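S2.1 Query sequence (DNA polymerase I)
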Amino acid sequence: MTEAALPPATAVEEAVPPVAAGQKRLILVDGSGYIFRAFHALPPMTRPDGTHVNAVFGFTQMLSQFLSRHAATHIAVVFDSARLTFRNDFYPDYKAHRPEPPPELIPQFALIREATEALGVCQAEQPGFEADDLIAAYARVFVEEGGEVSIVSSDKDLMQLIGPGVQMLDPIKQKPIREPEVFEKFGVTPDKVVEVQALAGDSTDNVPGVPGIGIKTAAQLINEYGDLETLLANTAKIKQPKRREALELNAEKARISKRLVQLDAHAPLPCPIEKMLTRAPHPATLEKFLRENGFRSLLARLGLGDASAVTRGNGFRPPAPASEAPVATAEATPFGDYATVTTIEALREWITAAQAAGVVGFDTETDNLNAMKARLVGFSLATAPGRACYVPLRHEGSGDLMGAAHPEQIDAEAALAEIKPLLEDPSVLKVLHNAKYDLEVLWRAENGGIAVAPVDDTMLMSYALRAGKHGHGMDELALLHLGHSCITFDSVTGTGRNRITFSKVPLDKATAYAAEDADVTLRLWHALRPELRGARALTLYEQVERRMVAVLRDMEIAGIKIDAAELSRIGVDFTEKLARYEREIHELAGKPFNVGSPKQLGEILFDEQKLPGGKRSKLTGAWGTDASVLEELAVQGHALPRRVLDWRQIAKLKSTYVDALAQAADAQGRVHTDFAMALTSTGRLSSSDPNLQNIPVRTEEGARIRRAFVAEPGHVLLAADYSQIELRILAHVADVPALKDAFAKGQDIHSRTAADIFHLAPEAVDKEARRRAKTINFGIIYGMSAFGLGARLGIGPGEARAIIDAYFGQYPGIRACMEKLKEDARSTGYVQTPFGRKLWIADIASKDPVRRGGAERAAINAPFQGGAAEVIKRAMVRLPLALREAGLGARMLLQVHDELVFEVPTAEVEATSALVKSIMEGVASLSVPLAVEIGHGASWSEAH
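Output structure tokens follow.
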């Protein structure tokens, strides 16, 4: 077992000053916070008998570091005893949806308690009470006895305890949390925190609160009325009708919520305070525990064994081994002065250092942005902040040697053979940024392929934390989190015609750029990894986003086969159709012109034909002729703009797919798209180079293009598509009984909606009524206005408004849900999917009404689109393993929003279909069933 390391602690003298003579100080450590941080921060580790111990190791390391840096007269670690507490007696749903701990963590709980005892620290837990209750009770008693208390936790529920004699210490940021920090988070003083929480609720713990009221609104109300009961007694004075109604209808929920969040400061004290006096651990006991669990590095670090050196006094202060220099923090260590590794011996030294560290930053340098075409030029390693190197492999010489291999570098095959065991070592965590790219490059390496694992991806950490808030590129994150401006790619390779490939960059410049990438990646890991748990994004990152890296790597490497002959036939047909459309357009215009020229088209439409609604660009003075302008004119019945739209669609399909696919196919006739994992604001994947997600689904031309995607001989393509998943999530989130009933009964949802909102008998719903209902069902998800709906249905805004009003009248829960989403976005800056992912909404506070309106529509749509994205991602991370375990040979090739495409041996179609359907329909537990439609055929078109 190679032990990993946690991020180094920073100095904390300002947070917890020394204990003065005669002073009493109690430090209460939230044990759960330490446990889960340790478990998720470290790769899997087992002791000699196979027991998982990564959480035990991390907990022991963190607690020993804490003890060596903090002074106190009393200390205790407080643990949760069980999932059920007295709160479940009066509210059974409290924390009911929290998942069980991972199975590999459960056996470690008992060992962690042994670690606490071995370190000489008192521990406290009490059945029926949460650790937070015990912390509240101990803090109350200790302050009453004249002492002061520091609570080591970042849990917001404990902030209600802050006051005279009581502060918190954020264990990640190592900064104190006092009244100003509480006011910044909740908008009230600590004594009012429970009042705010009672109104706002907490979806993570199933605390209901009052629907439609977030933290910001709750704080305003409590600051105005003083407390919950005074507010509820004066709801008649509230001017906003929706807010008043929500408070009146949910008063009892608010009271229950307050009971749920109010900590019991009179809970039992299972460990007497006098037993919490600080004491040094017994060296023999601690050494025995560390040896039994195989923690050799901790034995050395704590000076035990042959070099035992434990001092007694106010706290535990083990010395650092003389051979180890203090590890500088990521924030304090300067960037630069990196090494260029040009010999096997030097590379081995770096590999040994990486193995000892247990965590290594890693990056590749290549000659192409497309991973399937890229050639590995070099790689970089970072073993600690500021400690990084670059290993050139295929740099070319300079001057007369340009084009020849650079003389100062290791043979590529030899270097890859050396680095492969480290990259595949399960006990060393590899930290990358946009790991999928590097994993594909290394998998394609000529020495047989390198399967890098385990991996952390700082890009995906940032994306899990703040999708939609900002970009997730390394340069942007370095500036945001590290205050560091990275060396740019353009500065080392040049731009435009003068750009050179990275293989021609001189080694000094290449080292400065490439090693900095690995260094920055490791520093970002130190900054972002601890945030995940506090932001409740850890499960999303670890169980979904990170697992998608290997899944997408395999999909992109597999690619999908193209029928070149069919593609050629489609190209000929599209060329003929474009020519025919162009002739018709010229006839309608009364003269020939360049159909692809927006300027000439604008002059024809608005100068010569005098069509209404034209607008000139303020910059160029040219008429606007984008799709929205032409669509509006086409709706009004004008033939020329309609035919131009048809021409544009065919021209785009020909250039984007017919021509591009033929060029993109590899020697085996397969094309390999690139799935971007952190580009959209909703969690959806996007596809490029080529984009295989935007092929029209319902047009004849789109079906023809899909006909060119085929299976290998002896196989078929199988398409599995979630049916109306965003509407199902809407029914679940908005809790709409009629829609939930329709989905539960397998009814046609659009016919059911038509019958409900138009008050028709089911048998009286015709195609037109269903079409209208379908348009509004999907339009509602996108925040469509009456004007937009009217344009889609070809009716006036007044009639469209009446339909929307009828819809909301029939399904009032949907309107309430939409208003709450907008309020959440305005008060917090983000909305959440049903699974808890935060989706940040740009421009929600914009003073520009157009931009703000767009942001509000995005806030309405994001949870449903984001929820659907998370459902299919959950399926994607489960399916490859399920297929392998079932002995099936199917390969997942594509994801197109709500659809997955597989290549399946013909003899296994039935078994694969059943397994795929079962997995996809069972990945999420909603109040409506998920439904998956499956088809198969020789081509992608036939599979639909």
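The CA atoms of residues 459 and 519 lie 14 Å apart. Confidence is low (pLDDT under 50) at residues 4-16, 306-331.
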